Amino acid sequence: MTNRTDEESASAAEAPSGHETLAAGIGLAAAVLFILSPWLVDRSGPDPFYKGPLIFPMIVLAGTALSAVPAILRLLRHRVGLPFHVDGDGFPGRAAALFVLMCLYPLGISAIGLSAATFLAVLIGLLMVYRRPWQSVAIAAIMTLTVHLAFKTFLDIWFPAPWLFEMIGA
C-alpha cells in the first residue's frame, strides 16, 4: 500500500485519467461519425429507412456517443475521483470478455442463425456477470423472442440462411 499525501490525492483526483480520456475520445469520434453517416453510406435503393444500410450503424454510433457522456462530463469537471477498477488488478476482465462475445455475435448469426446466436450470446453474457443459471436461461429466452419478433416479424428484415446448417444439410 502506498502512502499518499493529501496534496497528491487531491491532484490525482483532479487530473483526468486515461480511461476517461479514451472513453471521451471514442464517444466524440462516434458522435462525429453519427452526424456524418448520411453522407458516408450509400442510401440509394428501394428499402425504407428502417431496413436500409444506415439504421444499424446509426444505432451503434448513437449508443456509443451517449455512453461516453458521463466520461465527457467528468473530463469537463476535472474531477475523476478514485482510479477505475472493475475486476481486481485494475483490468476489466469481464468487460473485455463481453466485448469479445459481442464481436463474435455477428459470426454466430451467420453460422447458426439469429435466434440461436441471440440465445447463446445473451445466456453466456449473463452467466459471465450474473451467475444465476435459471434466471439467465429465462432472460435469454425472453430476449431471443423479443429480437426475433422485432427484426424478423415486425420489421421483416431478411437474414441469410445459417451456413453451418447448410453445411450439415439441415
Q: Can you describe what's shown?
A:
This protein is mostly helical. It folds into 2 domains: about 80 residues; about 80 residues, no CATH class. About 70% of the residues lie in helices and about 0% in strands.
Task: Provide the descriptors you would attach to this structure in a database record.
single chain; 170 residues; mainly alpha; 8 helices
Q: What does the secondary structure layout of this molecule look like, with pairings?
A:
Blueprint: H1 6-14, H2 18-40, H3 55-67, H4 69-77, H5 93-112, H6 114-129, H7 133-154, H8 163-168
Helix pairs in contact: 2-3, 2-4, 5-6, 6-7
Which range best describes the helical content: under 10%, 10-25%, 25-40%, 40-55%, 55-70% or over 70%?
Answer: 55-70%
Number of distinct beta strands: 0
Shape: globular
**Class from helix and strand fractions:** mainly alpha
Mean pLDDT: 78
Number of helices: 8
Order of helices and strands: HHHHHHHH
Please state the CA-atom Rg, rounded to the nearest Å.
21 Å
N-C termini distance: 60 Å
Low-confidence stretches: none
